[in-house]
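Review form for a predicted model. The reviewer records the input and the model, then writes brief findings.
Reviewer: anonymous (R2)
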Amino acid sequence: MSKREKAVTFKGEPKALIGPEVKVGDSAPNFQCLSSSLATVTLADTPAKARLFSVVPSLDTPVCSLQTKKFEEALAALGDKVAAYTISLDLPFAQKRFCGAENVQSMQTLSDVHNHSFGENWGVLLDGLPLPLLTRAVFVVDASGKVTHAEYVPEVTAHPNYDAALAALQAIA
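Model under review:
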């Protein structure tokens, strides 16, 4: 598996990312994540429509929580024209608890804890931490499976460009 040295910083410290850099125009890589019901979900299991993949280190941190809630609010206007997912290495039980406590309904959660396939295939698995985490990133994928927006947030603890991601999503919805 490829490693991209100094791809991001985590609290100011340079960190490598495991996996390839996914770019606009690429075919969306496959993955196997777990839903809140512990069902395996792959890219093919997501609907063939505009999709937002919001990647966070852990829903139990302030920036990740806010990122999920911010996308949740913005997606209300798009209704069922889009599918949206928050992906982390949190256990599905913790993701479900978070969504219930925060009234998150539009953003579906996917846990990459089983085999880190999303992290490795999308190039968002952080290397060199005491426990595995995904870096902060946002991807938009169209109905045909092409990536139309890709943002790897340079500093893991910073917010993504919400406006750019939502504009990319609205452009294909």
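Findings: The chain has a mean pLDDT of 96.
Further findings: The longest helix spans residues 62-75.
Recommendation: see findings above.
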